């Protein structure tokens, strides 16, 4: 049995009440400390101003300078507090989504592994058993003397099947609660037995039902058209007599349901004049255990697999049919992206601050849009390709970012910052060439800032005036 999929160990998850309470407690302590520092600084300025009340010129100059600096500090603290308010909950949101996505990926892997190596309907090849009296000797001690004793004992031997002609029709049911799928097998097989022994004519035909079934119907054994009855209830050993040199045919048939794979096991026997035809009335189906069929026919609705062994062949592993599923590739990419998303957010916000006059409200809206896009990516990537999903989301993000600018040139600057600081870094973590993509994003950011500040691109006074007027409305 497969263990249940678990989240990433040690990663905060806001769906856990204990971690949520701990986060709230720590956030409250940090907020109180920040408020205390701001109040203490204001009190310190007031005390210095009171101490210099007799020196009016010096007091005015000192208080004026510190009042300006204190006002700038308060405005900076407002923006810093807002960024922290967006960043810290955003980190916990991303860590929670990362845990959920990791859990979902592991559940998919476990489900696919169960269809390949989990429960199965396994049909064992029947055996023809007989007993012989075999002489053997042993030594024992009688009256202090070592005595050799010769006796006979009954030994079980097996007669090799002379031929096996098997056909199984498989149907699949996928609407089963708690199961990925189940197989409905209609099995028919004819086994030829030839007595090549000289003095043995009593045999047992052992034909157990398939292993792993949940429902078994119409299980019957026939010999040359005559149905056989087991000697005991639940015992699938059928006695028969066969004279030396003669042959007989046994027919085994049943209908069974079981879980999502059907295989045939030779149980270590040599297969001679063997033919197995498995018809899978579903798609996509593939052969199991790596033993390639001699013939595969497909008409779009069903697939027929045929194995033929004319001479004596030993088949070690069970072989048969299972439901083929698409391989799960690139696991762990979205969880890694979500864990690095807060750093990408800081990168993007820093580019915006260094490129545009950013208001308090604009930062709040931009941060909310960024984490909302990541939330959409997390769930959209479950149904479509992650790169395609981010491409579609990026178009929406760029359209919304255009509104950060008060003029065409300022909007273009915001678009460039978004491409270099958000779109390319996220896309770089979704593609195999992450290092190259992130390097290009970093180079584009550096070139943009150099052009913007050293060469005065998009720094027209009229653009700055319009941006300040737009920010003043907020």
Query: Strands of the biggest beta sheet: in what spatial order?
Result: 8-7-10-5-4-13-16-15
Percent range for β-strand residues: 25-35%
Main sheet specs: 8 strands, mixed
* The number of domains: 3
Here the CATH topology of the largest domain equals Immunoglobulin-like
What percent of residues adopt helix (DSSP H or I)?
40-55%
Mean pLDDT: 79
- Gross CATH architecture of the largest domain: Sandwich
SSE order, one letter for each helix or strand: HHEEEEEEEEEEEEEEEEEEHHHHHH
Rough shape? Answer: elongated
Low-pLDDT runs of 5+ residues are: 1-7
How many extended strands? 18
How many H/I helical runs?
Answer: 8
Global structural class: alpha+beta
Radius of gyration based on Cα positions:
39 Å
Instruction: Please report the first level of CATH classification, the CATH class of the largest domain.
Output: Mainly Beta
What does this structure look like?
The chain is α+β, with helices and mostly antiparallel strands and 474 residues long. It has three domains: 1-118; 122-323, Immunoglobulin-like; 329-474, no CATH class. 45% of the residues lie in helices and 28% in strands. The protein is built from eight helices and 18 strands. The strands form four sheets. It has an eight-stranded mixed sheet with strand order 8-7-10-5-4-13-16-15, with no helix packed on it. β7 (213-223) and β8 (226-228) form a beta hairpin. The longest helix is centred in the first third of the chain and has 62 residues, at 56-117. The protein is elongated and about 120 Å long. The chain starts with 16 loop residues before the first helix and ends with a helix. Mean pLDDT is 79; it is low at 1-7.
């Amino acid at each position: 049995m497969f263990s249940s999929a678990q989240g990433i160990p040690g990663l905060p998850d806001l769906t856990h009440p204990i971690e949520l309470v701990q986060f709230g407690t720590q956030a409250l302590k940090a907020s109180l400390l920040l408020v205390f520092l701001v109040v203490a600084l204001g009190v310190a300025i007031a005390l210095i101003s009171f101490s210099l009340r007799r020196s009016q010129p010096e007091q005015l100059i000192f208080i004026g300078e510190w009042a300006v600096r204190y006002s700038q500090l308060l405005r900076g603290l407002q923006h810093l507090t807002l960024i922290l308010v967006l960043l810290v909950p955003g980190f916990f949101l991303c860590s929670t989504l990362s845990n959920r996505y990791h859990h979902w990926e592991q559940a998919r892997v476990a489900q696919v592994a169960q269809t390949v190596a989990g429960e199965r309907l396994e049909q064992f090849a029947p055996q023809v058993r007989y007993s012989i009296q075999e002489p053997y000797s042993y030594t024992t001690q009688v009256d202090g003397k070592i005595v050799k004793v010769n006796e006979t004992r009954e030994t079980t031997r097996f007669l090799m099947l002379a031929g096996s002609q098997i056909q199984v029709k498989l149907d699949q049911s996928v609407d089963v609660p708690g199961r990925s799928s189940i197989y409905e097998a209609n099995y028919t097989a004819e086994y030829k037995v030839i007595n090549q022994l000289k003095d043995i004519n009593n045999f047992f035909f052992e034909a157990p039902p398939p292993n792993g079934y949940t429902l078994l119907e119409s299980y019957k054994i026939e010999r040359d058209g005559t149905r056989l009855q087991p000697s005991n209830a639940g015992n699938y050993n059928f006695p028969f007599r066969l004279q030396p040199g003669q042959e007989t045919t046994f027919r085994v048939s049943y209908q069974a349901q079981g879980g999502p794979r059907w295989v045939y096991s030779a149980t270590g026997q040599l297969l001679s004049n063997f033919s197995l035809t498995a018809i899978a009335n579903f798609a996509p189906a593939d052969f199991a255990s790596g033993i390639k069929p001699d013939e595969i026919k497909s008409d779009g609705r069903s697939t027929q697999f045929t194995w033929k062994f004319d001479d004596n062949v030993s088949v070690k592993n069970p072989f048969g049919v299972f439901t083929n599923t698409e391989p799960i590739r690139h696991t762990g990419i979205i969880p890694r992206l979500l864990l690095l998303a807060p750093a990408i957010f800081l990168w993007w916000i820093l580019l915006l601050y260094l490129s545009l006059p950013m208001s308090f409200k604009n930062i709040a809206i931009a941060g909310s849009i960024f984490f909302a896009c990541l939330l959409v990516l997390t769930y959209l990537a479950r149904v479509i390709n992650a790169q395609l999903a981010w491409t579609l989301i990026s178009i929406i993000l760029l359209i919304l970012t255009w509104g950060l600018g008060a003029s065409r040139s300022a909007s273009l600057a915001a678009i460039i910052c978004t491409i270099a600081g958000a779109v390319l870094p996220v896309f770089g973590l979704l593609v195999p060439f992450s290092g190259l993509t992130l390097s290009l994003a970093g180079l584009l950011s550096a070139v943009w800032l150099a052009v913007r500040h050293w060469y005065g691109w998009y720094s027209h006074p009229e653009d700055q005036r319009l941006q300040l007027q737009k920010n003043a409305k907020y």
